[in-house]
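quick one before i forget lol
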Amino acid sequence: MNIRTIIGLVLGVASGILWGLMDIASQFLLHNCQMRPPAFISLTMVVTSAVLFMYCLTTRPQKFFVPLHSIHSIFSLLVFGCLILGTEVAFFSCVKGTNAATAAVLASNRPFFIMLLLCFLGTWPTLKQILCSVMAVTGIALLVTKGNFTTLSFNAVDTLIGLGAPLFSACYTLQSRNLIERFDPIVVMAWAMIMATVLVNCYVPFWTVRLEWTTLSILAILCVSVVGHILAYLCYLLSASKINPTVTGVLETVEPLTTVILSYLLFKISLDRSMIGGAILILLAVSILGLTHHRKSSKC
């Protein structure tokens, strides 16, 4: 196993852990602070874009505007930003229309959507990748439902909206690979987030968002904006550019596992046998993929 593969595996797991941290902060903002999803996305994206803009402008000013020299690159960045925004809107709309458990189960289908897109592009997944994807998604379902699948609410419209999250994220996983390889990854993330921020603020301007500003709410906003929208996305995209995107999609399923562990530690949520079994399935899937020799898929 070469160093590129090892880095890709580590980054894939790291993205799931970081998104798990973001989930805890998001739960606080959406439930305790009573924020609506559009306002939540608008405000956090503004903070994300501001942090990325200032960081890139101060650390790599010569590289920052390079992607804008080409119309093709500008269009690719706009598509990337739209896909990121679509992922967030679909996920949080599903949470509002059904419940968090249903949205989490639907979002965990990302590896399958990546497989379908890769098949369409002529790259077929291995049997081991398919089996590990099934194991990971089953583990997630056990984690978020505690084995009681009646807690899921599969309304036709809400389910269709919820499936947009893994579909959009699978699309940007593959679409952004060329941008990540051609330009500085942080610069790519910055411009994609800036474009997504402009779009969402056309619908809900951030200055109209109402929020009770406390120490906890400020920390939660920063956690979502920096840890979730910057570090997690960057780790995920870099991982997908170094190893097979399907493998990265499975590795990222440690996100709900991280969320459950943190919920247990912070909110004293009890763990039953179904949840422990789900955690074991996720860890097995990640371990099997991590110990398997990987070959980077062809460029898409």
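fyi The radius of gyration is 18 Å.
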